[in-house]
C-alpha cells in the first residue's frame, strides 16, 4: 500500500532562529575560538550538539559572570532583559545580540509604553525566557496571563502584547478580558506571523491525515503548541524530536495511508528530511 507523506506548507526553522544560528556560526568562524551562548541557542538537542561540534557552548548567566574579558557571548533569538545585557557588557564581554527583530520590537514597545505610564500585560508563559526577557524591559512589573484570565482586578491604563508563539484564541480571550475591565488600552498583536502561518498549515493538514507527526524539541513551546493544535483534529498525533523516536511498528498498526508532518521553529531541515526518509523506507 502506498503511503502518502505530506509536509505542512510551512514547517521548521523560522526567520529569527535561522538568523541566530547562522549568525552564531559566522561569529565563531570570525573569532576562531570557543564561543558561548547564554542558554541553548534553540530548543533542539540535535542542533545544540551540532553547535558544540563547532565550538559553540551554552552557558548560564552565573557561568558567564566567570568568563574573562573579551570572551564572546551570543544572546539567542528569545532575547533577554536590559539588565542582563548591561551585566554582560559591564563585565567587558563581547556581547553579540542575536535577538529576533520581532522580539526586539516587543521589548521596545513595552519599554516605551511603561515609561509613558501604561501597565503592561503580557500574554504568554511567565517562565519562558522570551517572556522573562520582555518583562525585564518594563522593570519586571508586567501582569502575565497564560490564557486571558486574571486573578486580580486589572488597572485602567493598559498596554497588551503577546509572546510571539501564542495562540490566536488566547490572544482574543486576553483582549476581551482587558476590554471588559479597562477603559483605556493599547493592544499590539505581537504573535509572530511565522508561528501563525505554521499553526494554520498544521491545523489544515491535521484534519486530512490519519497520522500527524510533529517534530521538534520536547521543551520547545512552539512545537508543543503545534502538537496541541494537531491533536485536536487528529487523534493519532505524535511529538518526536527526531527520526530515532519514530515507532514504526506502532504506526504500521494504525491506519496510515496519509501521514502529515510538521515541525517547530527550532527544527532544522535535515531532521525533517531524516524523518521523511525513515518513514518512506520503512512503511
Ligand atoms: S518564531 Fe517569529 S519571533 Fe520567534 S524567533 Fe521565529 S521569526 Fe522570530
TrEMBL record:
(2E)-4-hydroxy-3-methylbut-2-enyl diphosphate binds at residues 43, 78, 128, 164, 220-222, 266. Isopentenyl diphosphate binds at residues 43, 78, 128, 220-222, 266. GO terms for biological process: dimethylallyl diphosphate biosynthetic process; isopentenyl diphosphate biosynthetic process, methylerythritol 4-phosphate pathway; terpenoid biosynthetic process. Dimethylallyl diphosphate binds at residues 43, 78, 128, 220-222, 266. [4Fe-4S] cluster binds at residues 14, 100, 192. Its EC number is 1.17.7.4. The active site is at 130 (proton donor). Its cofactor is [4Fe-4S] cluster. Pathway: Isoprenoid biosynthesis; isopentenyl diphosphate biosynthesis via DXP pathway; isopentenyl diphosphate from 1-deoxy-D-xylulose 5-phosphate: step 6/6; Isoprenoid biosynthesis; dimethylallyl diphosphate biosynthesis; dimethylallyl diphosphate from (2E)-4-hydroxy-3-methylbutenyl diphosphate: step 1/1. InterPro entries: LytB/IspH (IPR003451). Pfam families: LYTB. Belongs to the IspH family. This is 4-hydroxy-3-methylbut-2-enyl diphosphate reductase. It comes from Inconstantimicrobium porci.
